[in-house]
Structures are given as structure tokens and as C-alpha cells.
Specification:
Elements (H helix, E strand, L loop, with lengths): L3 E2 L5 H6 L5 E6 L4 H16 L5 E6 L4 H6 L7 E6 L2 E7 L4 H10 L3
Parallel strand pairs: 1-3, 2-3
Antiparallel strand pairs: 2-4, 4-5
């Protein structure tokens, strides 16, 4: 299972109207730390299949979303539930930290 690609066009449906928690990785191709957490995001997409949506936003191609949510440094991970931000993670962090914040969104 691969992360879904979130764009300015599908954000409303995929994230705001989702009935499951949604983790979004804000990244760019030129960002070194983004490449460090990319495999973690891929793993989570498989591990949370059916339980949560795992997506990625390329900030160079989808600037409206990044601006709307104040993403100023990447990687930034936002976890949404019921259309609201529940958790924010900035920078390359260990998988365990991402998992604990994602799990907290189920409560």
C-alpha cells in the first residue's frame, strides 16, 4: 500500500471529508530530511491500511495547502481527524514518535 498523493484539488475530499484519521507528510524532492522519513511514511501506509489514510503533499506543486496550514519548514507531518489538525510533527523524527501521535488521533 502506497501513500496517497494529496493535491490542492483532492484535499477537501481525501482529508477534510475523511471518516478516518489522515496523516499527511509535507515534503519536496530537494529536501534531504524528507527523504529520510519517506520510508517511514511508506511503511505506515501499509501498516495503517483500512485504519487511517496516509498521504503526501509535494509543497512545490501544491502550495495552497501548505500556505493554508502554515507549513513553513519541511518535512512537516500533520495528522487530521474530523477535518481538524490533531497533531503536528516538524522535522525528521523517529518512527516511534510518528506512530504514537498517529495512534493518539484515534482517541
Amino acid at each position: 500500500m502506497k501513500p496517497i498523493t494529496i493535491t490542492d484539488d483532492n484535499f477537501e475530499v481525501e482529508v477534510m471529508q475523511s471518516d478516518k484519521p489522515v496523516l499527511i507528510d509535507f515534503w519536496a524532492t530537494w529536501c534531504g530530511p524528507c527523504r529520510m522519513i519517506a520510508p517511514i511514511v511508506e511503511e505506515l501506509a501499509g501498516e495503517y491500511d483500512q485504519k487511517a489514510k496516509i498521504g503526501k503533499v509535494d509543497v512545490d506543486e501544491n502550495q495552497q495547502i501548505a500556505i493554508k496550514f502554515g507549513v513553513r519548514s519541511i518535512p512537516t507531518i500533520l495528522i487530521f481527524k474530523d477535518g481538524k489538525i490533531k497533531e503536528t510533527i516538524i522535522g525528521a523524527v523517529p518512527k516511534s514518535q510518528i506512530v504514537s501521535k498517529l495512534n493518539a488521533a484515534f482517541n
